[in-house]
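Sat 14:20. Reprocessing the chain from the morning session after the first attempt stalled halfway. Input below, unchanged.
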Amino acid sequence: MNANMFRAEDKYCCAPGEMYELQERLNTILRTDSNENDAEGYRVVSLYFDDLVDTCLRDTQEGSYHRRKYRIRIYNDSLAAIKLEVKEKRGNRIRKLSRGITPEELHSLMNGQCIRSSFSPEDPGFLFNLAIQTKLLRPRVIVTYERKAFIYTPGNVRITFDRNVRASRQIEAFGTPDILYDHLREQDAVLEIKYDELIPGFILQLLELNFPLQSAYSKYQLCRERYQN
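Finished this time. Tokens:
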């Protein structure tokens, strides 16, 4: 299985009651993510970057066929593991390039400075450095939420329930517990289903509910727009 292959990603907005019912169903069959802190899941905190003309935001708003997002991600407010990630989308397929970085590299990137990387376009460090040098990539917003995640290894299926999505512009405080967050005005709970090719039938049965249509829900977009107008 190639970790950098393009995969399917389906998103659905759902009510808290629906989310709880689905989690209870999956909990009896699938294993949970290794980041899990307790029965409620774990907290994701991401620092998103964009360039001088907000290309990432505009591409998301316009639904561009090919687009990228640049972010640094930590879990449960800990700097013990810091992930540098570039998420690329082509149509309805996505892939995520990810690697660990040090706190020193984190601070360099936050200050618009390049870090050590290979010269491979598969290295998110290389893509970050290139965007910093050519497009003045800089941090724009912090996005946080609570996540419950389930995994089914055959087919590389990953099902996540994200709730209580919040935003902050206190970029300089990223990686500390001192950040003040603003709640979204829009739907703040979303189900995401990622898989390579097909979802096993028994998982589809477990996920049966009266869902609305699939959503193009973007946490980054909604959190950026939280501070516009």
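Residues 40 and 201 are 26 Å apart (CA to CA).
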